[in-house]
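ok so i was messing around last nite and threw this chain in just to see what happens. nothing serious, just curious
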Amino acid sequence: MAGATAEAPAKLARASVFRLAWPVMVANLLQTLTTTVDLIMVGHLGAESDAAVAAVGFGAQFIFLFFSVMISVSAGTIALVARAIGANDPAQADHVLKQSLVLGALLSLPLTLFGLLAAEPMLTVFGAAPDVVALSSAYIRIISLVVFFQFISFLGSAALRGAGDTVTPLWIGVLVNVVNFGINVNLIYGNAVVPHLGVPGAAIGTSISYVVGAFVLIAILLRGKGRLRLHLSGDWVHMETVRRIFRIGWPAALEQIFLQVAFTLWVVMVVVFGTDILAAHQIGLRIQSFAFMPGFGFAIAATALVGQNLGANNPDHAEKSGWFAIDGALRGAGDTRFPLMTSLSGMYFVRLPLGVLFAFVFGWGIIGVWIPLVIEYYYRSAVITTHFRRGKWKALRV
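result:
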């Protein structure tokens, strides 16, 4: 009987995690599908398809640098919204939402300039073929123009998830993909009215879909969704809240920025083997990203539930929820620095050095670049699990 009693909270935690996780899995699958659709469609451009696939893949890798900053703000957003909801303080949750959107809007401006000005020089330095540089630069510049709308959509969805609503971001993801596909079909290949645009057409379609998604999300938040609502009245900038969001988020920002730099260096190793291999590599990365969706969904669910339980002063339930996705659980508790150190050590001391060793010293070629990926993931999972088991994250103040 005692065993059954002890098992009940665990079953409840599993049910809560899965209820929040499955829409996140599908939503992030759809988010990944947006750039994957671009990749697939430009892959049918005939003679230019190899360069087009490599360009869109390289461009998407560059765009992920933008997402690294978005993730940093969203880490603070989810943690603070979740704690406010757990403490039954919806006014504070609304306040955090508003300040997150303001912070995201401000951060989007330098990133837009960076994308417009730095795309071509960076791609040239990485050693990509001239046709890949030209196409990829055009793709990056076009999407850079809508970074503001990407931020709004990303952070609004993060706030909803922190409040326990993972379904609304899912439906917005469906809408974004439908719009993206419909526009891409016409702009990439052309028709009787629109000329054949190729890779730039894919960027335009994706950009428009991001704008549509952002407007729909803002409309939903203004009307109020569940326990969260965006209020236009009142102060728009509250520096103390902005600092709290940033204090939680900066390690996640640093983690993602350095990770994207490492990913880019990893791709540079691939560029050495030519455009065909680079195109194949980008396709492989898209397929791999789909495999990550279940884990990412559980991580977001754990982030929200851990934050809510800690806000309600219930660390034991927070721990039970956290065991389903440990990295996300630490973020929900506000412990973003340890995942930072783990990720960076994995990339810079495991994946990249072993990639150079296997591919170029041992002469294993492109296979030598890929093998360290698996080794690194085993390393990171072992380190992060050990840290979570120690339980110091339960006492963190945010």
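not much to say yet. The CA atoms of residues 55 and 136 lie 4 Å apart.
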